[in-house]
Amino acid sequence: MTEFHSEISERAAHALQSLQSAQESGDDYLVSVREAELEGLARLAAEHGLRIPALERYTAA
Known about the structure:
Elements: H1 3-25, H2 28-47
Helix pairs in contact: 1-2
């Protein structure tokens, strides 16, 4: 795993944890922010040919 791949994976994990916390607390704005962040990370990973399972549901079909 490259450093770039590792960094994207770590950012995805952090965003997913934050998303879960936002959902649990009912913070709709933060939910939207984190979902957009995850979609952006998924796009970035796809552009670089990286497969990151945590981002699969945020990848455009």
